[in-house]
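ok so I'm stuck.
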Amino acid sequence: MLRVLQIVRLSSRCSSSFVSRMRFLDGLKQNDDVCSAALQDAHMFLFHRLSPLLQRNHQGTFKTAELRTSDVQSLLENLGSDRTLLQEAVLIGCTEQNQAQFCLDIGGLDQMAAEELCGGTFVDLRKSFFLLSGAEAPLVAKAQALLRWHQTSGFCSATGQPTHRNQAGSQRTCSSSGIIYYPKMSPVVIVLVSDGERCLLGRQAAFPPGLYSALAGFCDMGETLEETLSREVAEEVGLEVQSFSFSSSQHWPFPQSSFMMACHASVSPAHSQLCVDHSELEDARWFSQQEVLSALQTPPHRGGGAPPTPWLPPKHAVAHRLITEWIQNTKS
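replied:
not stuck anymore, here's the structure
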């Protein structure tokens, strides 16, 4: 009986909608003809010089402008471009109904004309993160990252010869050597440090005024996650980490494409005096639970006027998740 139950459960998992979608996407990546066929009736996300097209809905909020292939074909024709530009679309996913999703950058065409025809606006991706909700922000982040990778990977680093993509855009191959390149992400550790009563937040000079976030740094070659975490905290604020725990991970499209590994870390309350490296951070300081709660309610600073009240990363950012987890843990 146990053997039968195991077979039934395995069969159920193998026929799940998730498994079906993953195998469908893998088939599109492996077969150019199948991918080309899927492109003819797909959901399309447009970008203009890496800024996604957003539309305002009836509630006054923003959403991604999800077009169909036929809509984009008509748009290209109205803007004086032929349909061959559509072949530069990149596969980014599929719907619950196994409808392929592609993204396309039309940066060579007139932006204002495209916005008028689509009834939307091309919005910088950083700003988009504060305007979008649900799963839309990660999807446009993935799309932008793939589009940027194709725009900067036109030549082989070994031979200098042109590279050519497959139809899905999941890889590029050197025309001379046959070397295959895949999109890459840089590993980054992001950590929220606590002394038990307070959490540590910092800001870089490049941040918008008033924005504070968790500490973060790129992994050096050969480092483990824990080594990077300990080193970054020591370098940036002069503290020695006692312990840490892994929280979650996230793709983050800035400044290029990063793989964020999010952690909580603790330091001794008796050794929590900060020594900030101002070549790394403009500022870093301890925040009480009440200060964090207030910052979570503060909207992004628009510039001008008095010095801004501290505010925090958008809900889509893994830094925001770390901060809200800390609040929940300190309350319990």
